[in-house]
Amino acid sequence: MIKQPPYLKKGDKIAIVCPAKKLPKPIDVGIEILQSWGLEVILGDTVTAEHHQFSGTDELRAKDIQQFLDDPSIKAIIAGRGGYGTIRIIDELDFTAFNENPKWLVGFSDITILLSHVFAALNTQSIHGQMPYTFEESLLPML
Question: Strands across the sheet with 74-79, in order?
């Protein structure tokens, strides 16, 4: 049976992390849109971190996403952006708590490795969808 995390509702706490490349610009518009939907947005340390082209060292990026995979109060983890780098940390992540308490993982591009892993290894749905880095260009005109 395929597991489906609970649908998001107003008041739910979601996390934004950057497990790949660093953000070249602020994602304030994306955060505002998510908050306007009634979601409580928590930012991971990687949202503002930099290490070469990455959003922090491999260790920081793995630790950042791990804390939200383990936190039962977080109902979704949205990647701030894709790029390259998630493949460098995927083997360091422990999905035990996530498997017991599934949550939505959202992103595309490099983030697809996370989405594919939770489906192939844990039979859990995720969302191949928009990330806050691109909200301004793609969602703002519709609002």
Answer: 40-43, 13-17, 74-79, 104-107, 127-128
